[in-house]
Design brief:
Layout (H helix, E strand, L loop, with lengths): L5 E6 L6 H14 L5 E6 H4 L6 H17 L8 E4 L5 H10 L4 H6 L1 H9 L6 H4 L1 H10 L5 E2 L6 H18 L7 E2 L34 H9 L16 H13 L2 H12 L5 H28 L1 H30 L6
Parallel strand pairs: 1-2, 2-3, 4-5
The structure holds tryptophan.
Length: about 325
């Protein structure tokens, strides 16, 4: 096993969908056998948008349950909740001294949020990248499996790490984004418009919590047309999307059959979608069932959280001690 440490945070809002599964979770599951991994629910980060306190707990349970149902093994990875590790906000405070107002204000995610919630442009939102840097640096992580949208945050984490090292002496490795070479997988939405999404476009997105019936309904509504008018015609985007989704969950024989039918102009889109719907149901149903099972077993979830908390704090407190010493906060030794 590689010794380089991996950290990633999972947002605790919104429903996980097929894009999350093939984009992020599958990577996590692969990484757990190759690296020491720390994965956590980023509940502090979610506070930047003032979620309903009553929703927080079920959301955190749900995210944990979903991740375990997708294959994360709490005995292999350290799986924990951010707010269970007080060393993180402590390092966040220190790193804030190394984060400048100008660069924080220029962050793309901050500008987006400031635009979308103009009545709640709080300091937590502004310093979101410092908290994220603390999440990563607190374990001296080197790799962070995240999507493109997080690259700027990671660049900032590298800057904060460098500044700390430069000012107080070498402590933090510089963290880099990591993927297994499948970053280009885009999971198209079912209506031919963009990608599947956590909150928009709900009818064109397949969620891991969708029932069999809902999955079938959504897939059958996917946009099609009259069919190809000449052999070997290029596929319009929305048809290609259906085939792309098939590639994820259907067998090769199925894929070949429908590709040949398309090329020979005798494809029936109704059959194509029916097949995709069944294959999707077979893929999603076990994940959904396992998630529900776990959500109903709160005491197991709590022991998993506790175990993760202990492992995470052990690693975090060592690094935090080092950081305090480097900064001169070592009054008792
Ligand atoms: N900002 C990340 C997202 O929106 C979540 C996150 C929080 C994270 N802390 C992190 C990801 C640390 C990687 C490492 O998806």
């Amino acid at each position: 096993m590689n010794k380089d440490i991996v950290v990633s945070g999972i947002r605790s809002t919104g429903n996980l969908h097929l894009g999350n599964y093939f984009g992020a979770m599958r990577n996590y599951v692969k990484m757990q056998d190759e690296f020491p991994c720390f994965f956590f629910v980023a509940d502090y980060h979610s506070l930047t948008t003032h979620p309903d306190p009553l929703q927080l707990k079920p959301n955190v349970y749900k995210v944990l349950a979903e991740n375990i149902a997708c294959g994360l093994d709490p005995n292999k990875v350290t799986l924990y909740v951010q707010s269970d590790v007080p060393e993180i906000p402590e390092l966040y405070l220190m790193l804030n001294m190394m984060a400048y107002k100008g660069e924080l204000e220029k962050t793309a995610s901050f500008k987006d949020k400031a635009r979308s919630q103009p009545d709640n442009i709080n300091a937590g939102l502004l310093t979101y990248p410092t908290l994220m840097a603390a999440d990563i640096l607190i374990h001296k992580a080197k790799y962070v499996p995240v999507g493109k949208d997080q690259e700027q945050h990671l660049e900032m984490a590298r800057n904060f790490a460098q500044r700390f090292n430069h000012r107080y002496g070498e402590l933090f490795p510089e963290p880099y984004p990591f993927n297994f070479g499948n970053e280009l997988i885009k999971i198209p939405s079912l209506d031919g418009n963009g990608k599947m999404s956590k909150s928009e476009n709900e009818n064109a997105t397949l969620y891991l919590s969708d029932t069999d019936e809902v999955i079938r309904k959504k897939v059958m509504k996917a946009k099609t047309d009259q069919g190809p008018t000449e052999p070997n015609m290029a596929m319009p985007d929305y048809i290609e999307n259906i085939f792309d989704l098939m590639k994820l969950v259907s067998g090769n024989d199925v894929l070949e059959k429908f590709t040949t039918d398309y090329n020979n102009c005798n494809i029936r889109y109704g059959d194509l979608k029916k097949q995709l719907a069944e294959d999707m149901v077979n893929f999603i149903a076990p994940i959904r069932t396992k998630t529900i099972e776990l959500q109903q077993d709160i005491s197991s979830l709590q022991s998993i959280m506790k175990m993760g908390k202990e492992k995470a704090r052990e690693s975090a407190s060592n690094v935090l001690d080092e950081a305090r010493k480097k900064m001169g906060i070592n009054y008792y030794c």
